[in-house]
Amino acid sequence: MVTTFRIEAGGYRAEVVPTGAALRMCEFDRDGTAVALTETWPAGSTPPLAAGVVLAPWPNRIRDGRFDFDGIEHQLEITEPKFNNASHGLVRKREWHLESHERAAVTQSIDVGLHRGWPYPLRLRVTHEVGEDGLSVTHTVTNTGSTHAPYGLGMHSYVRVGDVPLDECRLELPATAYLPLERERNLPTGTSQPVVGTEFDFLTARKLQGVWLDTPFSALVPDADGLVRAALRAPDDTRTVLWTEPAFRWLQVFTADPSHDQAYPGRGRALAVEPMTCPPDAVNSRIDVIVLEPGEERSMRWGMYAA
Q1: CB-CB contact of 229 with 174 (8 Å)
Q2: How far apart are CA 90 and CA 124, in angstroms?
């Protein structure tokens, strides 16, 4: 039996699944028409290109699966053998436990547990909720171990504006810096660089036709309310807005693209805007890694809405 958790309120509908606590669908009723805000996939099948899944206790890639913490070297399982990386954490393919499911909200949780190269037990909880302000996602992590632990979080969230083809849309991204990656393994090659004057400048909305990205962006500029907002704009200026709280210091932007052998099924080109607390290989660079003391709990939020 296929399990999906449907939530609905304020003109918004979403579906979440237990595998990876993935957001399978989010849409908004605009004048009686359902407008998709995310990419989706058939219920019961594997999320294509990691669509909608939670990435923890690290997002993105760790070089050679190795890192040093407190003077102890750890060797993680290599989950991206082609490039010899440990990729996207330990929970994206696991089944999360349902804690509660109401009309407008669903909460799931999982214990990370002990894994090869990861001796840090953590408990993760995620609540997806919809209302008049759109979708809000709250992530909570608790260090259930007896020593302090490194932690990073990401969401592999896709954005779209209904059925408008990606190449007709414009991307607006409030990021003033980007982190260069070498393209073979998608690992950092140096330090963050200013976006001004480069192909990575989306401070003013730019059309995505011909653009390919798999890039971490930082130095995010918040609005007056403290939230960071990125927007995908259709030609008529309707848009899907993805927002994050300050705890998410990075946005990884990825374009699924047939010309790079990464087509999104049924769509071809698609766009992921991924809130992340730290960049690729952060446990080695030490950039924005969260360190949790025993018993410590932290929460952070992101979400999306139609405008």
Answers
A1: yes
A2: 11
SS3 83: coil
Report the SS3 class of residue 282. Answer: helix
| Beta strands 228-233; 170-172: pairing state | antiparallel
Residue 301 sits at the vertex; the CA angle it makes with 298 and 304, to the nearest 5 degrees, is 170
Report pLDDT digits (tens) over 122-164: 999 999 999 999 999 999 999 999 999 999 999 999 999 999 9
d(CA 153, CA 298): 11
- The residue count for the chain: 307
Ramachandran bin of 183, using left for φ above 0, alpha for ψ from -120 to 50, beta for the remaining angles? alpha
Distance of alpha carbon 15 from alpha carbon 217, whole angstroms = 28
Q: What is the pTM of this model?
A: 0.97
Instruction: Say yes or no to pLDDT of 167 above 90.
Output: yes
Going by C-alpha positions, the residue among 109, 115, 111 that lies closest to residue 96 is 109
Give tens-digit pLDDT for 19-38: 999 999 999 999 889 999 99
The Cα 236–Cα 30 span in angstroms is 14
- Spatial CB neighbours of 220, under 8 Å, sequence gap ≥ 6: 174, 175, 176, 228, 244, 249, 250, 251
Residue 167 neighbours by CB under 8 Å, 6+ apart: 207, 208, 209, 210, 269
136 token code pair: 């809000």
State which amino acid sits at residue 82.
K
Q: What is the CA radius of gyration of the chain?
A: 18
pLDDT tens digit string along 59-118? 999 999 999 999 999 999 999 999 999 999 999 999 999 999 999 999 999 999 999 999
The residues that bridge with 80 in the sheet, in sequence order, are 85
